[in-house]
Amino acid sequence: MPQLALTEAVFYILLSLQKPLHGYGIIQNVGELSHGRVKLAAGTLYGALNSLVEKGWIDALPENPESRKKEYVITASGLNVLKEELARLSELVDNGKRLLGGN
Amino acid sequence: MRRVVHKLFWIWQLEKEQAWVNEMASHGYSLEHAGRFRFEFDETEPDKYIYKEIFLKGWGESAENIKYFRFLEEMGIKVVCYINYPGTCWVYTRALKKDYPDGIELYSDIDSKITYQKVMAWYMVLVIVLTLAGGLLNLWMALFNGYRFLPLNFICAVLLLALCAAAIVAEIRNLVKLSKLKKERKLHE
Questions:
Q1: Chain B residues with beta carbon closer than 8 angstroms to that of A46
Q2: Does pLDDT of B46 surpass 60?
Q3: Cα–Cα distance between B178 and B174 in angstroms, integer?
Q4: Long-range CB contact pairs, B35-39, < 8 A, 24+
Q5: What residues of B are in contact with residue A39 (Cβ under 8 Å)?
Q6: Which of B96, B122, B145 is the last residue of a domain?
Q7: Bridge partners (DSSP) listed for residue B69
Q8: Residue A42 belongs to some domain of the structure
Q9: Any domain includes A90
């Protein structure tokens, strides 16, 4: 069965977690990647991180006792999902450009 | 200096209460503690904080909510206090206004907004059932007890049924919001 489309938030979270980041770092990174267009809210991010850990697409790293901030990083399975989503999005963009005549 | 204000907000007046707490903050009174009808403010510089009130499943002390509160603190959002209700809690959070100039938004996608609205809608069902059952029971005791008219039970019945009617209006608003979000979800994230 083909993978269902990821939400924009999940796509950007997975993209951000190629290096370990804590929640606030993810929000900042997503903001930078999307040039300020995507603003993740704290409650949405919290729910998404819990679901992604449950699915095994990201791992929660052991807590740093100094900062007490939990960091997360993408897993091999999460990376596969991200690559499949990228292929799906490329298909959308290619078809859009072909039929609308844009480049 | 601490200032105590007694004010009544019903459970469906969350937005109205939040607007009032933020107005107090804009005048230099930061909320430090809230009870069901009692609000305690400290004098602070005007517009230092911005407040957001949220409804969560489970009591404030539950392990899941404590984890969530810690996460919010990492985001610069502090839980000031919370009030427990059966199966849920009403949470007062705040952040520095310079960090959240447009207000604290906890949900940025439609799915999270739908989930939140569903919690509100289900809780309101509970309020409606309880007030309706209490109102009808008191009405029956006042009018049909087989002995004499009981004015105290009649007053209780009128108050509870009035509360029930207000809760039904609030629930209709909730369901309209939920329906709009679900329609929107069919087209957008």
A1: 68, 71-72
A2: yes
A3: 6
A4: B35/B83, B36/B83, B37/B6, B37/B7, B37/B8, B38/B4, B38/B5, B38/B6, B39/B4, B39/B5, B39/B6, B39/B7
A5: 105, 108
A6: B96
A7: none
A8: yes
A9: yes
Tell me how many domains chain B contains: 2
Report the chain A residue with the minimal C-alpha distance to residue B67. A46
Contact B74 A23 (CB under 8 A): yes
Last residue of a domain, one of B96, B126, B141: B96
pLDDT at B117: 87
Range of the domain at A14: 8-100
If asked whether residues B34 and B57 sit together in one domain, one would say yes
Say whether A42 and B115 touch across the interface (CB within 8 A): no
Interface A:B, Cβ pairs < 8 A: 49
Closest chain B residue to A38, measured at CA: B108
Selected residues 38-97 of chain B with any CB under 8 Å from a CB in chain A: 54, 68, 70-72, 74-77
Confidence of residue B102 (pLDDT cuts 50, 70, 90): confident
